Each structure stands twice: as C-alpha cells, then as structure tokens.
Amino acid sequence: MERQEGEIPRPEPFWIDRQNGAPRLAASRHRATGRCVFPRVPDQSPAAPRYEAVTLSSHARLYSFTVIHPNPKTGQSPFALVYADFPEGARVFGRLELPHGVRPVIGARLGAVIDEDADGNARYVFVPAQEVVP
Amino acid sequence: MSRDVYIAGAAMTPFGRHDTRSMQDLAQAAVLDALDDADVSQDRIQAFYNANVYGGMVLGQVLMRDLGITGPALYNVENACASGATAVHLACQALRLGLYDTVLVWGVEQLTRLGGGTIPLQRNDYKTELYAAQGMTLPTVYAMRGSRYLHERNETPEILARVAVKNRAHGVRNPYAQQRKEVTVEEVLNSRPIAEPLTLLQCCPSQVDGAAAVVLTTVRPTSSRRPVRILGSAVQSGHLEEGCDDILDAEITARTAQRAYEEAGVGPQDVNVVELHDAFTIAELLYYEALGLSEKGGSADMLRRGDTALGGRVPVNPSGGLLAKGHPLGATGVAQMVEIAWQLQGRADGRQVEGARVGLAQCTGGGIAGVDHAASSVHILGV
To answer: Which of A85, A91, A93 sits opposite B134 (nearest CB)?
Structure first.
C-alpha cells in the first residue's frame, strides 16, 4: 500500500523475523544461559547485547491450553489459547484456531501462522498441523 | 541486629461490596480497630505503611488525613496482590533494624469501583502488551496450569472443584467472608465456564472491597492474649521465564517459603494452619507442594484425604481463603496475617484450628508476562 505524504511508517513488529524469506516468529537466546525468550528483545533495549537473535521454526508442540468463555453479555464465542513449545527451546503464548467442535490436545503438533493485512497490521496464530509436515 | 517483632493488634473490615463506604471509611475502620486491639494510641506509632494497588498517588496520606495520622514517615507500598504482605515485610525489616519500636500497617482496596470483570494485566511492557493482546489474563495463566496439572497428574476437574468446596465451606463460618454459601462439587463444575478448566466458582470474586490492619511492635505485648511473633518474613521477585519451564513448579513460592522457614527455624511439618493465595483453585494445589505441605505430586491426595480441611492435619484457608473471603488486592496480605494471628490466639470464632502454635501466610503478586509471578511473600507466625 502506498504511503501518504507525512504519514509515519508503521514499524515492523519486533516479533517477526524475515531473515529467511517467509516471516517467522522472532525470539532471543540469552548468551550466558543459552535459553530462549519470546518475543525477541527489542534492538534498542540496553539488554539486547545480552541476547542473540533466534528464528523460530514454523511448527511447535501444544504444551498447555485453555478455552476462554467470554461473558455471555459480550456475544463473543469461546476461543482457545495455548502455550506452544518450539524446537529451539522457546515457549510462545497465543491463540489456537480450531475447526468447529475440535478440542485442543496437549502434545498436538501446531503450525505457527503469521497473518498480515494490506495496512501492515500483523498477528500470529497457531493452527493444527499434520504430523507429516516437516 | 535482630529483634523480635510482635503483632500487637489485628483487625479487618468484613470483605464484600461496600457501596456506601469510601476507601477512607474502610481503611480508617480497620486502623482504629487495630489500634484498639493493641491498646495503643496513635501517637505511639512511629511509622505507617499503606498497601494498595489501584487507589492512586499518596493514597496513605489521603486515607489517614482525617484521623490526624500524620507526621511520621508514611510509606505507600504497591506489589500487586502481595502489596499488603510486602508492607508487613518492610515494616518488619525496619523494626528489626531498630529504626522504630511500633508501626502500623494497613492494606485496602475498593475493587467494586472499577466496574467488575477480570483484573487487567499491566500494559507498560512490550511482552505483556503483546500477550495481553493475544488474550492473556490472570485467569488464563492459572487455567493453563490447571490444564497441565490435570494432564500430568491424570486427574479430572473434580479435584479442582474440591478446593472450592472446601474453602467455601470454611467461608460459611467466617463473618468477614464475602461469600458464605456452601457449594457442592457438581455446583462448582456446572457454574459458568470462565477459562477451562476453571469455572466461575473456582475464581475469587473480583467485586469486593475491604481493609485490614496490624500494629507491629518490638515491645512485648502485655495483654492477657498469647503474644504472636513474626518468626519469618520473606519476599522474593520472579525469575525471568526462559525456555520451556515446568509451569507446575511454583518456583518463586518454594524459594520464598524456604527463606521464611530458615529464618523462622521451623519446617513445613511444624505448621498448624495456613492462609494461602487461592485466587484460583489450581493455585492452592500447586502451593501445597511449593510450601512443602505435601511432597511433589502429592497435592491431590492431600486434599482428598481432608488434611487441609478444618479438623484435618494442617487446615488451609480456614478463613475461606480468597475464593470465599474475597480478594481486595492490597488488603489481602494483611488480612491473611490478621486471620493467622486470630487463629494463634484462639480468637477465630467458628473456624478455630484448635491448638495452633505456628501459622503461615503466603501471598502471590502477579501479572506480567515472562516471569513466574512478579512477587511472592511468605510469613510465618508463632506463639
């Protein structure tokens, strides 16, 4: 989308990594402990030199979940939230989109999907993944 | 330098919806009752500690102005749900250092003025902001633990419901509790789902007001009541959550308890009564293990055996806990100590743990993403 004159460019979300083409979730690994955190520690943070950048895989395992039931007055439907554990040793919290009637299962394989719209808004969600997907 | 610290006076307002009382009214009532309970005049108090979360700037001075509780140092303390316990901890430090002989600590909150619903997470941090936008709330965090607990321990939601049944049965006996109605396992499980596996009756009420106060002193009380001493007082902050940690390991609580036990010179086996932070049912089970009341993996059996019910080996939350008594954030930690002091002095009418000599109060302060809770406090009291 073409930017209007004087419009401030929307900053890239700090949790997106485009190093290898397709957008992936961006994490950090602590140089001393070797352990990962998500999202990536922002570059401008004084703590940033203590971490190195890590690009997370596109798949993870469901570690735990809940299904939120919004107050009936809101009219919103229930939705699932998960902790997803990535092979790089990072845990990410986020929404899990499931087909109607399907329940989350601990240990299930998940895909991490990044949705971006034409206005530059981005969000990540998890979706069920087939075991055969690499 | 180390000096004994006594709870000379303890008081609280009933927790509940106080539509016609201001936060000043609540705090002043608790403070005056605590001073009266201690038989200490306010001019003997050398420092004041006010604990609160949502009340605003220099709240303590605002609350006490009309009582003329002015002049000496007044410290406003905020540490989320652990604010009250943190204020007691800071007061203990000053007393033990000999800075003061007698101080007054109170906690107060008026959540009904916030309009109800889930208490929001802090939004002043990039990680918490991202996760809150995804749907993270405090019930979410505990519900995740609940799901994992049921999965790993091969339990059903009934074990969670049993916590609510026990604590609400205790609350029936406590005139200071907001919710004083017994419930069954079926009623708990069939109440409105909030964040699976948690249902409404497994979440502490968020529409609640109240205040609690204690007079702390290094001067041994001379009243006929057994003097209650603070044997151990610990506050810790949560470590950065890295990697894929075990969310059933309440590390911050275990670490804080260990420090309090060491300072008190007692162990979990010596504790006769406990008030702990059961904001959600799953929390109570995890804290049995973190406090050493049960072995790791033994919390469900401990609850099923009735060990933690009134009349059991170590009653937990005889006041009804946060689930029944209510959880006015800044007041909670102080109110827990009020309950333990009353228990140790044989003043907990209707819910007395007979022969209790050592009591423990545990409070958790949370919600930021990326740490295993923001704060934890454990106090051990004895007579």
So the answer is: A93
